[in-house]
Batch of 3 targets.
Target 1
Amino acid sequence: MSIVFIYFIAINFITYVTLANDKKKARKNQYRTRERTLWLLALAGGAPGGYVAMQTYRHKTKHASFKYGMPALAVIDLLLLAMTGGTAI
């Protein structure tokens, strides 16, 4: 496995857990994760994990920026991974 693929798995795991945790906090009316943080994680390569978390927990699915932006960014992330030699795809 390449270092790029390991990074990709790690950032997507972190993004998934962060979105899941934000949904948990939303249900309890607790302090939330900033949307900027969620987008920075997505831009760092975690958009596929973020999109899966959105669908799993039905979180941020009514926000147009997340509803359309996250899947678009996920496709870009996956294409970049494929182009850089992410051998596990």
Note: Residues 3-83 form one domain.
Target 2
Amino acid sequence: MIIPHVNLLGFLALCCYFLTLFPTLVKIIIPRFKREKLVLLLQRYRRQVGILVFLLSVGHGLSWLIMNHKDIFEPNFLWNCWHGILLLVIFGLLAATSNNWSIKIMKKNWKRLHALTYVAMFVMGLHVWDKMSIRWSVLTPFSFCLVLASIGLFGIRVWIQRTTKKLNVDPASSSSV
């Protein structure tokens, strides 16, 4: 089965996005793996991978527009594509501020802005569900799995952080295994 390049670009963007979330999720959920080479490598190049997510997303969106001969000024365009546009805006902001200069200038606000990545996770879930649930391809089950894994692991991370905060324990050091 041939996978359209539009779907492939979207799937690659989703995979890279998951890779940006992975190091933090692993460090909180399975602290003993925080020094593994893969986790350290992903942590080190997280910003570059995030920029790649944005570029792949732009390629995905532009390819979809061209392939489907869509007019962005069409009345229903925004209604039908709001989640894709919102993801592009979020990823654009994150990519534009994924540099040391932005961290230095924005200080605490940089972390607040980059917390939008968790909003993007849920919007990504809506986007994948809305667009792929009708048009299944070979990539659809993998896309659903990645989105559900991201949201599920994020839920576990939040739960761990809240329970350890109530106990005044550092989640990274709470593992005795």
Note: The chain has a mean pLDDT of 89.
Target 3
Amino acid sequence: MYELTPLFISLLLSTGLVAGVINVLAGGGSNLTLPALMVMGLPADVANGTNRVGVMLQTLVGLRGFDQGGKLDRSDMWAILVPTLLGGLVGSVIASYLPTTLLKPTLLLTMITLSVIMIVKPAMVIPGPDETAYRLKDRPWAWFGLFGTGIYGGFVQAGVGFLLIASLAGGLRYDLIRANGLKLLCTAFFTIAALAVFIWRGQVAWVPGLVLGVGTMIGARLGVKLALNVSQQAMKWFLLLMTLAASAAAIWL
């Protein structure tokens, strides 16, 4: 049972703000917010469901910012949404029934694998400056990458931004800024689907979730301003650093 004291309110707002910035620019913010919710006394499964409230709210703010900045690519977004949304539904159902002890090893394996790829062969994830983005129909194998990413996001959420960037920038070769915009779009849709499952299972604590959401929305607004004004090179290094940080978090959390 949790008690929402002034200390915990401050903790949720501050971690939400930092997580909102990180999630818009790269990913891994849930490595901060999930422990914050569990420190309050929420069980891991309820923390996992409650965290989706903040994620949903931040993605809506971030999406609006990218759209206003002209960086939300609409040309193929509906085709991209289908596999991620289907995967999100599958992953959230799995998460609501399977033991919560599987969350940490899943996060750890995913983050370490992605970190190794980005260090050893970064071109697999980060497109060159002159590359042109592909439509999903031109690279049908990318459908399975997006579906698998949706399953992961529905299951654990933490670090899904990295996998979406890997699918969108690595698989379909979107530049990192547009990949981030589409990442938020995909995250918004499968988070809504996942949140519906967690609500149905009674695994959402609304008050801490909404307090966390206030922080993530402020962070998302700041993150969009940064994302629209930084270079591809700076974004690439930030993405690598956040992936390594998420790997460390997965080991120690």
Note: The first helix runs from residue 6 to 25.
